[in-house]
Structures
1.
Amino acid sequence: MLKRGVRLAVVLGLLATGAACSGGEGSGDGGKVQLTLLSHYGSDPAKGGLDKMIAQWNQENPDVQVKSEVVKFDDLLTTLTVRQTGGRGADIVSAYGLWGGQLQKANVLAKVPDDLAKSIKSSYSPAALGAVTTGDTLLGYPTELNTYVLFYNKKILAAAGVTKPPATWDELQDVARKVVKRDAKGNIQVEGLSLIQDGDNKSVHPFLSLLDAAGGSFLGPDGTAQFDDPQGKAALKLEADLAGVKASNTSVSPTKQFRSGGVAMAIQAGWWVGSLKTQMAAKYASDVGVAPIPGPTAGSKGSLAYGFFMGVNERSKHADEAWKFLTWLNEHKADSGVTGMGRYLAGMGLIPPRTSDLATLRKSLDDPNLVPIYDAASYAMPEPNQPGAYEAKTALHNAIMTVLADGKSPDEALAQAAKAVKPQ
């Protein structure tokens, strides 16, 4: 569900002052505790599903009531920090894992109780935990989890004589070159492989997925750059080669043109399944295939996992009640032994982060395209979220774009990006 970036630079100064703010908005009224939950779930099915669970809690717990507050995703971090600075922070926050380091550094998030942290760490997938852990510190309950996979148009590949999705980088390049189509003037009519997504830093997640497939890493535990190693150089050379033969072009929008047959393959996050089903209707089942992102050799594969979490505001006056609600929200059972949160997330086409939910729901998937998306949760590289990770992501994106759009040397671009990464 993460599609667009945020105005991070606007809020960095606010984060620096966040630790000085007063408590959240929770307040008692006639002996009742009123908790507030701030999220970006403002439209269905996300809004309706969360509201339904909150209503169930409120009915069963009359002395602890929860009120949902919603802002657009682009405004979420700014709203969170501005309210925190003004002493009006929500008791419970839903946030993007990439922000975790900044929020933790500014003392916005309360420490997860030890017994609860132990339970969460034993119950959630490595990808989900990695996406919401900064250093050794768990930020809260993992919620949304997305992994990257290779989407492909089955009909376009079949028309070019390709009977199965590529399983190595050589096959990926070969297929991309076979299926690309250009008009008499050289303009792309069908892009072979898209290496970008919507939003800011649009080139980074596809690159990191290929980097993971090669066995590389983005950042070290201390925040230093690790993407300028042989694996990183090989991954960016692959992208450069595809751009060089015009099988990939950053001017083509995959989210707009894949559905109409203008893109043959694209490295995208799993949430895209839900969008494509809506946009393509009956053509989705006949045209869309999903496969793991291949690595350099047969059997190698990679992905990137990013996630959201729900945690408690360090300044909340009702932290105990807030953790009690979050525990119920993420652990109460719905049906077939699956938690309510797991059913809610799966209903939106997202990966349930709890391992037991994932195992149960995977057995009953009615869409084969979801299988590689679910499977990637077991091997995907978690998106780093320590302080400075966003700035490192921006530096890497700028470097990748000089290669894809301007033809710069991959090795030189990565070296330049690595120098721009400043551990915090």
2.
Amino acid sequence: MSTQPKWEELSSPIEMRGVTFKNRMMRSGMYEGMATERGEVTPELEDWIARQAAGGAACIFPGYTNVCLPRCMPYQAGSYSDSHIPGLTKLAEIIHSHGAVAGLQLAAAGRQANPNLFFSDAEAVMGPSAMGPSPLYQAACREMTEAEIWQAVEDQAAAAARAKEAGFDIVLPNAAHGYMLAQFLSPHTNMRTDAWGGTPEKRFKFFEETFRAVREAVGPEMLVWTKISVEEPWDDGINLDEAKIFIPEVAKLVDAIEISGGTIVDNVFMMTRGEIPIGTLRKGIGGSVEGISAELVDVLYGIRDSVKFEEAYWYDHALALKPLCGDTPLILTGGHKYPATMNQIIKEGTADMLSLARVLAAEPDFPNEVVAGREDPGKCSSCNKCLVEVVLGNKLQCFLPEPGYTHA
């Protein structure tokens, strides 16, 4: 005699474009720092993704891949060269072997490029508009030319084609967290007055051209998702009102929308709310991340109350934006720890799937245990040491002391 799972809605399958997801939990593209300098997949990265995939999430995204040079982070997997396809193929095969759907996240650094990671003088920090040095990398950004903008569109499409060749089911160009797609959407970083900026419609042009090119590159059957910022750490950046303008247009171009917020180089803790590990940050002073200074640490200490952990901290944004998505599923990330709350979000229809990152770094088996009826919250303490360590160039790991929490 079969019984319904305790968390029925969270454990239920969902189908998109003929692809079935066994439950409503997915592993977000959390950066691991385990690739080679040139972006090739390593056995260590394969092992990490295998452990994540075995944990029961319906869909696994490895950490985001760089569609072009320069890079934002060291030891970041690449999708900018055909030489990356064999390693990416192995990751897709590993994910599929555990019954999960395989997704690949694509990103271009733009103004978030780290000059200390340049391979040649041909690389440049550039974005929609010229800007002063970023807080984290202390690198000024120059304005992209028309030709460079169209090349950036092609870079995303070419990377998407490589993801398809590697066997991934989903390709997700990242329009969140301050990467290039987000830079064009944001009025803070896009101050152009040509066809690519000046109004919300013109700021949306780069996103639209990119996703049309990606769809053409992968064909009509492959799932195309996006992750998009709905809040940024500036008064003149993307906010909920801005998001309400572009989300209906985004929904026409993609098969699912994952919402998030914050940026890497300005306020990373906005996207990973919790503690600010001051001592870990101080270890980076004088290292390869130019902006980590005693002054920056003091500034971050001053904003600690504004980034405190809250359960499902983008929930209110999802509540406002879900009705604007039409039939396009909305995926909610950020602060999912309590199974009862997670199930309620799916049950009430505020989101169609939930995206997990830090909680799975701490407990890869969390989805399996939730499906089996677990009521206890995820054990991730939101200490954010995992986040800061990868920014400093170290490998992703959980710092909770209890045995069994870290990957071995």
3.
Amino acid sequence: MTDTISSTRRRLFGAAALALAAPSLARAQQQRPTQRPPQRTGQPQPRQPQPPRPQGSPANTPLGPVDTLARHALIVDFETGATLLEKEADVPMPPASMSKLMTAYVVFEHLRAGRLRLDTELPVSERAWRMGGSKMFVEVGQRVKVEDLLRGVIVQSGNDACIVLAEAISGSEEAFADLLTERARALGLRQTTLRNSTGWPDPNHRMSCRDLALLAARIIQDFPDYYRYYSERSFRFANITQENRNPLLYRNIGADGLKTGHTEESGYGLTASAVQGGRRVILVVNGLPSMRIRAEESERLMLWAFREFENVRLFGAAETVENVPVHLGERDTVPLVAGRDLVMTVPRSWRQEARIAVHYTAPVKAPVARGTELGRLEVSGRGVPQMSVPLYAGADVPRLGFVPRIGASLRHLVFGS
């Protein structure tokens, strides 16, 4: 007979408990305000002005509603994938030039596969030259290096550069758009359908905030050698220097990418990533009313994510989370391990609310192979982003021989263990 076991702990075991508790105590001591005697001047002290609150509708967060002017918004932790803030994050929306991230991703794939090189020179068609909107200012008949075209797409948001790359890879922009959609679906971008390489307005050209955040994470993870282009603040081509439109690159908050977007339909949007203290956060906002508000709102939300949340290491890759009974095995138990370092994102002010539940079915029948998934570890609690990860057998457990199995079976029948 087997039973499903749930082991729930309000306190995180081992070093994880100290990791959650000790920093909060230290921070409480460090942040205790110095008491000052009241000033007796005879004049009332002026109240400090409060920062204006945005007038938009609220986004959902583990800490409660947070107002934002963005029509769509999402903030995720890069390492854990925890959602820190979301507002209409899974609704398909016009991404404008933020969809150029998918164009760049496909170009990066071709570079990695050797089908393109950074010094490959591509011809500029009349269609690319005539393309409106933001431009790199390539000339018809000119041949331009792939690396320059990538900088034209990433730094200058050049629609003409996108079409040159699209035609070189797929023969036409229409065929390239089909390839973009196909690759997006393969990456798990469920709400993405792309009709062009540029983000040019089209009623069927759509992505969601979550798709953009996932795509940004894949660019950072899959192509670290090319991701550096997103942090470049300017690029000069055809004797014209254009600045990167990403406002967070100039705000000294650790931002190093990725892409802005704007059309009349979409409003002002930004997909951005920043690193502080070794922790990376990805933000996507869209539907903002102006460039100024895009800069202010994205900075405010990014700093909020760093200020309110932190990452805590729960277990090492080979550290035993739980020991599970084994039936008819050469060992009585098998350790459950995560197979990778387990890190969870928790609010700084709610860390003691975190709970861990370990779910598994026991006893496990021998033989057990190392690496077999045997259970799950779930993290929850008030204000804590939910997390669920698989747990695996940390060792091989061979089955007992015939004679020992008879004895073990008799013991199980008589004593129930």
